[in-house]
Amino acid sequence: MTVPSTTPDWAYEREHWRRGHFRVAGVDEAGRGAWAGPLTVAAVILPGTSQEYPFRDSKQLSPAAREEYAAEVRRVAVAWAVEHAWPEEIDRLNVLGATHAAALRAIARLEPPPQALVTDYLRLRADLPLSAPPRADALSYSVAAASLLAKTERDRLMRELDAEFPGYGFAAHKGYGAPAHRAALRELGVTEQHRRSYAPIRALLAAPEPLL
């Protein structure tokens, strides 16, 4: 399997290790831009060592590689948790608020609890030391591990929704605004799994004629 050229390291974790915070949780999400299905957040604590892992930002990997590495994350992690924000919560809180809420739920489920956090530019209001650099999923092993769990778990749920809502193609486009998804919405309409606060869905619901 070809390993992508962008290689994470432990730089952000080491900043916390130097302060005596050895249980550092990486946090990342998947599905913020999708029109349907959940937004999924994962939190992962990897062993506090300088060991190298094959983990990478999930967007850099094939589906098969993501599944392989996600299984490895679950095997080696000190602790991990995955939480979802479903469309009702996203519509109620807005997507950023729902991301924060799901992230805090995932962090609260970690056992043992984390002593510090590294996120992908997500400035959580958590009572823990926090590093939130942009592109952390490509730069930090812990955040890359979280991205793998978030992406693979969300993809699994979208495959389940594909069976529950046939004709929308959720297994293929994962709820994003692909042409096939737009066509299905014109033909079949909006489901309970669509995010009604998102502009394309809101416009479709409000228009006398389909706008997609």
TrEMBL record:
Manganese or magnesium. Binds 1 divalent metal ion per monomer in the absence of substrate. May bind a second metal ion after substrate binding. CDD domains: RNase_HII_bacteria_HII_like. Its EC number is 3.1.26.4. Gene3D superfamilies: Ribonuclease H-like superfamily/Ribonuclease H. Residues 22-210 form the RNase H type-2 domain. Belongs to the RNase HII family. This is Ribonuclease. The lineage of its organism: Bacteria, Thermotogati, Deinococcota, Deinococci, Deinococcales.
